Amino acid sequence: MLTKRIVPCLDIKNGRTVKGVNFIDLRDAGDPVVLAKQYTDLGADELVFLDISATLENRKTMHDMVLKVAEQVNIPFTVGGGISSVEDVDELLHCGADKVSINSSAVKRPELINELSEKFGCQCVVVAIDAKQIKGEWFVHLAGGTIPTDIKLFDWAIEVEKRGAGEILFTSMNHDGTKAGFANEALALLSDLVNIPIIASGGAGTIQHFADTFVKGKADAALAASVFHFGEIPILELKKELRKQNVEVRL
Predict the structure, then answer these.
(1) Most exposed of 20, 29, 174, 246 (fewest Cβ within 10 Å)?
(2) Active-site residues: which are they?
């Protein structure tokens, strides 16, 4: 059985780690380089580093930050934000990233997924999908959740797999920052529809929420931010409890 992964997420704005609720009301959560080192030492399985304002500000991900973070970690490290070309990815991988996460650029030009998969391998390509449930339907949103589309979550997930994505990072905008639990019903459906790993994001508040998303949501990995950044859930304690509930994790 493949082990389930615990993935702290570092949302970066103006060089600082930030965290909000429903993608707004951001507050400072610390130095991303310091946090990255801490999470590596505390037993995180992977890290995700997202430059959340890069797309909105029409600029590239901060390469110097990626270099500094990569120097501190010895676990897989995904970088996203402002990535729109093969050249962008090549630069980030040379800076030390293991994988890249694309979102808005993939929706605007889906062929980018094919190009990246063919050039770097599908294991390197994570497609992030920010979606919001509106009147019972899940719709994809772009640019940090600020731009709604008429693209349906499940249709898009199937397409990104066909185009060569190696993983899907699904964030429920309805659940983000609420600490009320993950969108397990949607996650389970996603897991049934595609054959690539699904990373659950949005809603972590308790250890039980993680257990539920692995069992009920069928997620392969669970991503969280504030519960880790502010010390509410220690990663080692989380993993020990998951083991008690027969969820296989790396200790």
Answers:
(1) 246
(2) 11, 130
